[in-house]
UniProtKB/TrEMBL annotation:
Coiled coil: none annotated. The keyword Oxidoreductase applies. This is lytic cellulose monooxygenase (C4-dehydrogenating). InterPro entries: AA9, AA9_LPMO. Its main location: secreted. It is found in: Secreted.
Amino acid sequence: MKLAIPAFAILIGSPVTIAHNAFSRLIVNGTVTPDYAYVRNTTYTPHPNIAPYDRLVPYTAVTQEELDATNITCGRDAFDAAGTTLTATVIAGEEIGFEVYNCCGLVPHIWHEGPAQAYMSAPPSGTALEKYRGDGEWFKVAYWGPTNQTHWFPKDKSQLLFKLPGNTPPGKYLLRVEQFMPLLPDYTQWYVNCAHIEVRGPGGGDPAPFTTAKFPGTYKIEHPGISLPPEVGIARPEDPTPAYPYAFLNLTAYQPPGPALWTGQ
C-alpha cells in the first residue's frame, strides 16, 4: 500500500459536503484516508421536498431519472473533481473499502435500510484515470446483503470492507461503492462514490466475463432488486416514513441488481 496524503487533502471534506451516508474516505489495508482525498467529491443539489441537510449523491425520488443519468456512475457531478482526486496504490489481496463521512453532528454510519455493492472499472487504453468518466464496463467485486430475513448487513455500519482478489489484473481503476434503500416502485435513494486506485500484484485473474455492468444503463427501477417483490418485503401503511416504508419479511430471498460477483476466478 502507498498513500501520499498532502496537507491540503485534510481540508477537502468541508461541512457543506455532508450526506446521510456519503462514502468520502477510502480505506486501504487498515489506513483510513482523509475525506475526498482519494474519492471524487460530489456537489450538493437539494431536492425540493427534502430537508436541506440531505446530500444527494445521488438521490432518486419519485421517478427513475437518476438511474438513467450520469449521476448514478460516481455521484452527483463527481467527474468535476476527477482531476484533483489522488490515486491510492493497492496491493492485490489487501483489504480495501470505504468509510462514511463523519461531521457536523450527523449520524456517522449507514442508517438507510438496504444492501451495498462495490464495482471496478478500468479506463480505456490511453485514457488517464483522471479523465475517465466511468462510462465503460464495470465488474462487481463486493456485495453486502442481508444477514438474516429481517436485517441488512450495512445498517448502522460506518465501514464497508472487502478483500481485493489476489489475482486482480494490475492497473488503474475506478472503485465504485453504492448503498441504496429499495423502496416503493417509483422511489429509491442511492448513495454512490468512486475512488481512484492503482492495483499492483501478479495478476492472472480474468474479470472480463463479469464486466457486464454499465452506469447508467444496467439498473432499471422495475428490477426486483430495486423494487422489492412482495415475497421479500411489504409496505407498512401504518408507518409512512420514507426511510422505513417496508417490513422486511424474507431478505434471504433477495437478489441484488447487476452482474454476478467476481471473486478472482
